[in-house]
Amino acid sequence: MLYDVIIVGSGISGLFSALYAKRAGCSVVVITKSNPFRSNSAVASGGINAVINLDEYDSVKRHIQDTLEGADGLSNAQNINDMCHDAGDIIAELKQMGVGFDCDEEGNIKQRPFGGASSNRTCYIADRTGSAIVQTLLQQCRKEGVEILSNHQLLNIAKFEGRLSGITLVQRSDSHVIAFACKSLVLAGGGYAGIFRGHSTNPQESSGDIIAAALRADMKLSNLEFVQFHPSALKNGALISEAARGEGAYIVDETGLRFTDELQTRDTLSRCIVSHLLLGHKVYLDFRHLSTQTIETKLPSTQKMALNGAGIDIRTELLEITPSAHYTIGGIWTRGDTSTNLPGVFACGECAVTGVHGANRLGGNSLLEGIYFGRLAGIEASRRAKRQDFLPIDYAQVNKEYRRINLILESESHFNINAMRKNLGESLFRNVGVYRSESTLVQALEYVHYLMKCQYGLHCVNKEKHNNVELSSILEFKNALYIAEAMILSALKREESRGVHYRTDFPSRNDKYYATPSYIRNLGDGFLRISFEKDTLGDFLYKVKSLFTRA
After folding, report:
1. Which residues are catalytic?
2. What is the pTM of this model?
3. 422 and 309, same domain (yes or no)
4. What CATH number is associated with residue 299?
5. Which pLDDT score, from 0 to 100, does residue 166 have?
6. Alpha carbon of 220 to those of 260, 455, 477: distances in Å?
7. Measured between alpha carbons, how far is residue 297 from residues 46, 248, 412, 486 in Å?
8. Helix ranges, 56-176 (H)
9. Burial tier of 394 (Cβ tally within 10 Å: 0-12, 13-18, 19+)
């Protein structure tokens, strides 16, 4: 199959990319590993930040300042400025598409407080904002003729003579390897917090497949050490939205003591909760002072989640919580126009590093980032597609993928994939969690290297090719190990504490050496290079080239 633009990922950023590329006249397909409602966008509950009431209590300037402060000295100020200024128009566009934001009696969109924000600027649909937006975008994509292919898992980025030519995939329905050609590729496949299995709000599919494929294609990654832990999750990893605290739920211990400020930034609040847990306390969300009407109209999903996931009626009982890996700030390095160092490939959403989150993301900014940069990626990808020809697919590469898949399917397995995934998650949570140090990071790295040796004995027990879930899990696990190694190496290299990256052996921020993103490059033969030097010459040459190609 040939497409002008292929988009991998069906979250908010991918769907917006698809809409704008399609509107530019390109043939477009969205590739998704399972179904679109499994994306992290669909479970982003709390809301989306935007200044929509320019009066005495808020301003775009304050939104920019809050985002910069939350980023803890590591951000792209220009990207933040552009995103925040565009936020109001994004809300208007969503509303015009049919997104039904909660409104007051006069028809004005309601806004709730969120951590790290100096004003109430989070627009919402009860506590199911992400799923409501995704549903609307899917309807809009189908209406405008965007093709959506579910249950197709990305294997690798295909190149011809070092340039983008397409992608290789495995069809989950029959385990068949196929290749699609494209002129432009948008990577929007989410993050890697799912590798903390058993201690993550993400599904296990969030294993960093897209980012691992980018690294294998010699694309530059950045900031993989920054993993945000959500302060409030159930013991089983189920997310309790920040909307709960935004609507007034307290954080208390077993004595009923409110020991922290519920609306601190997520990094600070997670460390505060973990410190309290390490002292032997239990930590709870307390909704009992809220009215039944508030709970049932503004927090219905939270009420249902607590009842189904923990057997707790939040109207009358305390809900026990713990921090859990939630959002990965690191990923594929991008320029301000979402382009990457591989021409023709663009990245947006959680898998991309745009610099708007810096070292710590503010709640409510992820959906905004996904839409703003998703739209931009669709526009830029379509522009490039119109001035490019298709390149050949190297079928030697496709045949190599075919043999690899058959080997996993047909050989005898020596290990249990579920046990290995769980053990990896336990090790990462224990050693690369809210608190980390050189000794814990080295322990985690040694265990990852041990699992890397074991992975060659991982094969499918079930040899059936039809909808083989085990095959998909093994492919995800191999990607998870690759990303885990890069994440740990980056965390070891950054000898300071900044945002969500807290080193107990280096508890202070060090602007002299580390006031810059980390950069990860694949050197080949299993070696990765971690550095903090920016390629300023390469950026300059790209900008000069862009001026001529757009003239």
Report:
1. 266
2. 0.94
3. no
4. 3.90.700.10
5. 98
6. 39, 25, 21
7. 14, 14, 53, 43
8. 60-70, 77-97, 129-143
9. middle
